[in-house]
Amino acid sequence: MIWLLNIALLILLVATAIAAVFSRDLLAAVIILSVYSFIMAILYTQLNAPDVGLTEAAVGAGATTLLFIIAIRRTSRREEE
Amino acid sequence: MKLIHLLVVFIIGATLALAVMGMPAFGSSTSPGYTHVAPYYLENAQEETGVNNIVTAIVVYYRGYDTFGEVTVIFTAGTAVMALFVMGRD
Amino acid sequence: MKAEDIFKDLIVRTVARLMVPFILLFGLYVLLHGHASPGGGFQAGVIIAAGFILMSLAFNMDELKRRVPLTFRLITGSFGPINYVVIGIACILSGGYFLQYGVVPLPSLAPADVSAVLISAVEIGIGITVLGMVTGMILSMTGGSDDHT
Which of A12, B21, B66, C27 has an alpha carbon within 20 to 30 A of B73's alpha carbon? Predict the structure, then answer.
């Protein structure tokens, strides 16, 4: 039954990736990207790579999101047309 | 113009899909990645390094140079960012 | 409303006060237990840095900046590579190759145990470097009143 969870997570992964690309609000895009990282971490843990999963959760969802948010705060939140 | 972009994306995607079909089966123990050095690590890592986590053993012991380079990269990147933001403000 | 005031929220403060000790504890666990369970220096450094940043976001960014001056960030950042090189050269002086940990003659320890101890030391150095660099980068990027020392 675990493959059903994996399929659902993979579909969600593609959906979050597309949503992050098409989002006009950059802060929303960054948050969606951190959700992407968390789903990726769960998938890595599913594939018996807990080290990579831990790194992805800490760096991808934690540090990168924080850096992006600080960068947005120093520039602008809206994407220019 | 947009049609050409779409065409390029489709060609690259088809190539990648064909390449994935040629890969060994998922979790296959006879794939090239598992037949060269991986058995040596699995059999000898614990006696040689005294570390139970084989990932740490490979990262810090067998591939120590790589990890040293990674630490240097992080140090250089952090120093550059801090120099840019602190000294560039004057 | 200033940009800094967004984070001075009651909910953020309460959650930060509850979470930060556990985040730091988990980071230390990942760092010191990295030789037996998933984890290691890189992950632990990022987790501990995330705890510090959450604390500074919820309370006062300038306070953390004042307590952690730039020179201290640079010293902690350079600790890891120096530690790595010192251990590697100690291996050469003991008659082995660079980073061949087992040859270092520590008293009353088998070669495998010596290499386990030195691997832990290297991991701790990596963790301190990542902690100092991530914290320093984010503190430098957040602007405000920064030290020019």
Answer: C27
